[in-house]
Design goal:
4% helix, Rieske Iron-sulfur Protein, 1 helix, mainly beta, 114 residues
């Protein structure tokens, strides 16, 4: 994995990410675990652990919705927007999920940690 530009880190090829509802955890920059979810040609990157109960979103997370996708943590039923990071747990406001900017260039996926 190499760095491209200021904060971009190459993570993988787009075709290495499964297209669907299950996030995959990748180490970005060799240090930071980040969850990646692919929905068609769009890739979302977010913290690998639920901000409420610290559950691993690669194991307990499910991505739902197309126009406004959400990640659902099956641990305590938390739901977070992959557009703005806002979420709820059992219908109460929850800490925001950290989102990361993704760039896809020449079939390669880059994540911006800055």
């Amino acid at each position: 994995m190499h760095r491209h530009g200021r904060g971009l880190h190459r993570v993988c090829r787009l075709d290495e990410l499964p297209n669907g509802d299950k996030p995959v955890i990748k180490l970005v920059g060799g240090l930071k675990p980040v969850a990646l979810a692919r929905r068609g040609d769009r890739v979302y990157a977010f913290d690998a652990f639920c901000p409420h109960g610290k559950w691993n979103l690669g194991a307990s997370g499910v991505v739902v919705g197309d126009g406004r996708p959400y990640v659902v943590c099956t641990g305590h039923g938390g739901v977070w927007s992959l557009v703005d990071g806002r979420g709820t747990v059992q219908k109460k406001d929850a800490p925001c999920l950290k989102l990361y900017r993704v760039a896809i260039m020449n079939g390669e996926v880059y994540v911006d940690l800055s």
